[in-house]
Amino acid sequence: MGDESRIFISYAGADLPWAEWARWHLEHAGYDTQLECADWKAGDNVIERINEALGRANPMLALLSSAYLDPRRNTTDQWTARFAQRRSDPDARMIPIRIDGVDLSPGIWAPINVPSLSGLATDEAAKALLEAVNGVLGPPMPDVYRGVPESAASTDTGPRLPGSLPPVWNVDRRNPAFTGRDDILNRVHDGLSGDGRVAVQAVHGMGGVGKTQLALEYAHRFAGGYDLVWWISAEQTSLIGERFVALGTELGIIDAEADSTVAKSKVLGYLAGRRRWLLIFDNVADGQDILPWLPRGRGHVLITSRRGNWQQIAHAVELDVLPREDAVRFLTEQRPGLEPGEADQLAEALGDLPLALAQAAGYLSGTGMPVAEYRQLLVEETQAVLELGRPIDYPQSLAAAITLNVAALSEADPAAVAILRLCALLAPEPIPVDVIVEVARPTDLYPQVLETLREVIGRPLVRQESIRSLGAYGLARLGSGTVTVHRLTQAVIRSQIDPSASAELSVHLESVLGRMNPGDPRNPAIWPAWGRLLPHLLAVDPAQTSDPVLRECARDAVVYLISRSDTEPARQVAEHLYEGWKQRLGPDHRDTLRAATELVWTFRDLGEFGRLRPLVEDTLARQTEALGSDDLDTLRSAADLAVVFFVLGDHQHGEKIGRDVWERCRRVLGEEHPDTLRSADNLASSLRELGRHREGLALQEQVWEGRRRVLGEEHPDTLISTDGIGSLLRKLGRHRDALAVHQQALERRRRVLGEEHPDTLISANNMASTLRELGRGPEALVLHEQEWQKCQRVLGEDHPSTLTSANNLASSLASMGRHQESLAIHEQVLKQRRRVLGEEHPDTLSSANNVASSLGGVGRHQEGLALHEQVWEQRRRVLGEEHPETLTSANNVASSLISVGRTRDGLALHEQVWEQRRRVLGEEHPDTLRSALNLAINYWNGSRILPARRFAEQAWKGLQKALGAQHPDTRRAAEIRKLALQRMGGRVGGTRTTRR
């Protein structure tokens, strides 16, 4: 039986026991199978392997269940893909089997006869499975039988049905509310189903994370694979012996009166000679406590513990809080009628901690309290709320468990409690140990609550023992050099700290965190340090601080967020700081105005242009009045105003203000101060948009050199200048040079900023546009499509950069002759730009121009002419008579006039545009050469052979140099030149031609 006959078993993660049961019986009967994931080696791409399996004609056994048919699971992709295959390929066989009571009456499965194994005895279920497979595939080849799989069963009868309990069993009832965790359960199962030795898995994690519930679910879910499952409560080591006595009695190998020593000897001896058994040691405090009780043999041991140091005893699996999707599903299932949005907010407030979720669901269901009210009480009376709604299968409420653990820890390690209290005032994110050390370092004004740390914090080994104690008592999660305390644990701890002590510690934290400013927030090399500090900086709420150093650090944190393109979080933080400082310090305070400055940049990057100008003008007026016109902050706001005019499309005002700011920065700060270079860069951009490309390029190259010296080759500001040079080279018609510069900028931005940073997307779009202008249309189109999709995902549909990307994509489509598609996109972009930017923003006029050209491309020449004439008139008014884009509009009007039969008018206008372009852009600019080509074509069509040859010769030579011999425009010029020379009896390529 070849590879295409192998049965691919498709199942939901929760149904792994069923998949293994089906596999055992199929292979025992002689069929060859492939179990999803089980037969794939480490490092395999799971999605690719699934696609490979589904792509072949091999049969697929689909184990249908409620979990399998959940549309949120990837199993939906598997069975729908096979259905799609079956429409075109009759060999794409699927064998559906129902394994639980899922209702198949609605939808695509309704007319299909699906055998059910639910409720059948083992023999009947195995018979039904084999009959279903045999009915589709026929009997297996007789030489395929491979024997009983090693990992499956101890007898030829095979494993019991999933869910059936073994004869020796003492596990509590299954929790019907258990949700998710399929990946962890299957990982534990894979770890236990090892190479024949006793396999030991230790599930560890903080209190309330659901370790016991996971072990309970594991026991029930995989019960069919065991003949013995025994639960041992191990929190009190002295009681482990009693559980072994009970197990020995159940097995009939000792009397009930036997002592624990005899029980241990007899039970361990019994298990050593057998397989298919599972011992669960729940809530182990220390691995050394259970080491004497671990059996030898070929069975399984599962341990749950708050501690994570299991390396010498077991393979450790850390259990974290529930994924948000599972937390929301749990809440909506336990509280019918709860909206997913409300459940998401509640899960966020509870930190996705399973015990807290269970308590909340129980209390809300029992009282009918609105979720919003519960969340508010959770903030105001955390400990009291966390005492309510204790699940019946958990011995304590979350608040009680935390309080008891803290009390026990304070007896064992007072310094650890001091660290815990310190962490309670920081964020529920990983706290670097160096932050803890810095905060706890003794000072003149040392907080009383940290007193027990005074002698410990400078002794690494002792300090680390105290940190380890936090994990051992289930009060924190320890990472590599970090400590994480759950938000609810933090809240309970905070409620137990004396208010005056808490206030003292808060002031101390503010002072220390402010001094931990990592440095230049625009420098990507420092971003990891900012990422570690930021959550804890925000946790102390710098909007309410009296510490000026912390305020400066908080403002730099906003710049960090803006620089790495976390713009919406940056806006939220900046707005919070601005409003808080305005109220606390006054609207004219330097720090308030600095927060306003950063808020301006978030509005710009988010494309919220309507909010830009009022805020920056108000800020600038206040700074000028309070600080003077040459103060650094005032200069920055003046530079911001120039940028605001730029993004609003008023480039003349932007250039005027920008030049004034640049001159003042040079005088006050010096030529190579980063702010001076930034203002010069902004001015160069304004010159580019005003069509003053040579002047802009000279200034941009000067800025680039300065930034390379001051900031380095790969600083984001230097890369802005690099890309700016490429854009100006392109505007000057130096497309080959521009491509090399854009490519360099793109490669560096991808490496420094990442694939989806907005600056990287700008570079990619610029490179694609340059490729298009060089005649490399297919490459440009692929890149434009990729970047447009990224822009939509990263920035949103209406962001100005997304609209620019869509506009560029449409232009690439037009260059490939796909005018109808191009027109549809251009019309959509024009509609959006009118709404977002306004009717006469230069970008809106560019879109209108492109729509007009696309109308001509699909043969709607009269409509195209009318719109081109409108745009030309608007550009003359907004940009000026001889702006390069105004000349582009004039050129397009001329071509449209000829298209509608007004040849004389069109030719006259083409001549005028050629003269203007020669004067404005220069003889060798590609746009000037294209104007010459237009004249050559129209003179040829009018049988004016001599001027046609002269302009074709000029265009051919220039375009060949600028764009290359294979560019479509170059080839068109060469064709007209050749035809004209032939008509005149001239030489082509060195050979004299004669007329016939």
TrEMBL record:
Ranges for domain TIR: 7-124
The biological process GO terms on file are: signal transduction
> Which SUPFAM superfamilies does the entry mention?
P-loop containing nucleoside triphosphate hydrolases, Toll/Interleukin receptor TIR domain, TPR-like
List the InterPro entries. NB-ARC, NLR-like, P-loop_NTPase, TIR_dom, Toll_tir_struct_dom_sf, TPR-like_helical_dom_sf
**Residues annotated as domain NB-ARC:** 182-331
Q: What GO terms are given for molecular function?
A: ADP binding
Protein name as catalogued: Tetratricopeptide (TPR) repeat protein
Annotated organism of origin? Actinoplanes italicus
